[in-house]
Amino acid sequence: MSDIFDTGTTFKQLGLSAPILRAVDDMGFTHPTYVQAEVIPIALAGRDILAQSKTGTGKTAAFGIPVLEKISRTKTPFGSLILCPVRELAVQVAHELRNLTRHTDLRVLPVYGGQRMNVQIPKLKKGPHVIVGTPGRVMDFHRRGLLPYEHVEVAVLDEVDRMLDIGFREDIRRILGGMRQEHQTIFVSATIGDEIEKLARRYLKNPEKLVLTASSLTVSQVTQHHFSVERWDKNRLLVHLLTHETPALTLVFCRTKQTVDGLCSYLNRKGIEAHAIHGDLHQGKRNSVMAKLRSGELSVLVASDLAARGLDVDDITHVINFDLPEDPEVYVHRIGRTARAGRDGIAWSFVTPDQGNLLTNIEKLTNVEIELADYPDFEPGPVPKAVQMERERKAELDATRLVTHSRVATEPPPEKDAVDPTKFPGGKVPTAMPKRRMGGRVRTRRR
Ligand code: ADP
Ligand code: MG
Known about the structure:
This protein has helices spanning 18-26, 34-44, 59-74, 87-100, 117-125, 135-143, 160-163, 169-177, 194-201, 234-244, 257-269, 283-295, 328-335, 356-366, 385-410; strands at 49-53, 80-83, 108-111, 130-133, 154-158, 184-189, 208-212, 222-228, 250-253, 274-277, 300-303, 318-321, 345-351, 371-372. Helix 3 (59-74) packs across helix 4, helix 6 packs across helix 8 and helix 13 (328-335) packs across helix 14 (356-366). It is 38% helix and 15% strand. It contains 15 helices and 14 strands. The protein folds into 2 domains: 11-211, Rossmann fold; 217-372, Rossmann fold (3-Layer(aba) Sandwich), CATH 3.40.50.300. It has 447 residues and is an alpha/beta fold.
């Protein structure tokens, strides 16, 4: 555990005020984490910061404590704006900040889409000191003149790499670009690639860069394995694992909302009580699923990447990548939902035979070997008829291509774009081998 907590330091030594020290104590924090011990004094000194630290290492308090210390001195309404990519994360960060302010008179307000405007507006009119919000809703209230940027003394981007990726980049440019006054800026994430760092630096003045991800991007408390499985066996393998391994609280990640819903129904049909969360559900439903998750009423949550970042739920014992993510950084965040604040956790990933490269990319990024797990008591099913037929069709097509290729090689090449309807679909005769051919499959123990 000492790779997360700086047991040689106390919060008192970091120069915190009495009310915040009391709150930290109430929250049961005895020692700061390393990222807190590094970030807090530098942020208190007023420097801009770009900090990378692993999932579950207490980045919220690392930026939250100095924000609250600074605003408690000036008591400026709208003195700090903290932006998060997902509504549930904004709520969670606001909750942690409220815990930290319980012995002060500072007001923290979460502001996010899907929430009733007329509930929010009176609260905004009271001039809260700290706003924690998602970009869309923040901009909306700004346009209505209810959320000024010109009072901001400290701006924070949590999950900065997500906030500066293409989906949010323009919103962030507008929001941070709207702060013309002198202000401090703090950016944090567990993953910050070179491109994102370049973009981030446009918003930072002479920043202190802190990287606390030495040797690997994932915490050592998480045990990672992969299962080699055919696409059509994934549902059954999941049920097998959920019933044979009896994980306590499992988060299952799928690539699309449709897979989330389909898998959730499948599990329910198999007698496993599973719930779903993704962006197409209305906010009321999202809130009730989150409440169930936090109260421990739920044992399996099937999720889209909506739940991949930031969420801090104490007892998630297992994260299962039902679909491997395309982006290796997403893997880091997904499995970071377990093994938080020094606890243990297990991460399993389903890898289909054509996903060897994705797995390798993840291993390269994280600098961790994700070993193959054996599951001897699971019986893989037969190749489905449709897949069998598709394979035969492809094999035939390949054979035809080979024949055509050798014939073309001995005859003068046909005129460019010549159309012969008796030959290929569209009449185009290929003059070269296809770029990618069958094969190149990852080796599995079952083959
Ligand atoms: P990150 O943002 O780095 O993923 P969080 O800020 O969500 O991590 O913190 C993870 C968990 O650790 C939270 O439940 C938080 O309350 C707890 N935590 C943070 N700092 C400490 C500390 N110094 N001691 C004990 N627990 C802590
Ligand atoms: Mg976080």
